[in-house]
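Exercise 3.2. Students should predict the tertiary structure of the chain below and write it as structure tokens, then compare their answer with the key that follows.

Predict this chain's 3D structure.
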Amino acid sequence: MNSSIKNNFARLKPSLFFLPLFLLIAIILFLYSQGALNVYTYIKIQKESFLFINYYLGQYPSIEYNLTQIGDASIFLSFLSIYIIYAPKMWESLISASLVSFILSSVLKNLFSVPRPAQVFDTNSFVIVGKTISGFTSLPSGHSITVFTIFTVLLFAFIPQKLRYKILWIFSIITLGLIIAFSRVGVGAHYPLDVIIGSIVGYLSALIGIFFNQKYTLWNWINIKKYYPVFIVLFLICIASLVYKIMNENLIVFYFALISLFFSLYKIIYVYAKK
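Answer key:
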């Protein structure tokens, strides 16, 4: 599996950056044509679409609230923890990509300072699931960045070689990514363009992380068994964090993440202890 992932990453070309950059330029031109390169109009032109999507997705609050938790890196990466043993090459790229996405998310949120829906609209006029999130950190959606960063690494790590399977794989990843990303609109935390732009930034973050990892081997120690105690400690910390989350919000997605971590913890201890 690890060698297959390594080969898949080696086949990637810089031309993969063209489509997301084109989409970002298209969005900027669209906003410019609408006179929406300012915070007020950016929000105004999305009000109707936000209320429409929020209303219909908000009819399924439990589903949306569980889905939106996957945008938390600690939750999403818990499901992939087992691959530290079986696909460390993927995790090398995940770490690099996650660092890039964190930096881009922080910089862009502070740069644009777009107020969240609850900061602008009457909170009785739309659906809010979970805690009311206000402030000026709406653009881009950090959860969407995280989701598409991780999904893009998975997309290229496990991409099939046969064309029909490749098309099905790409379609499935993008669809699932958008379903999770748009849960941020469903819970009333973001505008639609926040999510779309965040998804594109996440895709770019993943590509940067993969190509960076192709050139520099900062994380190749992940594959060395003597460093497994580092991950054992991290797994235990994540398990404690999930138990705390369950005590505060009894969501099914937390249980699945916890089961995944327990299984990964067992496997990594077994492999480390094995002579």
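Discussion points: The two ends are 22 Å apart (CA to CA). The CA atoms of residues 108 and 140 lie 7 Å apart.
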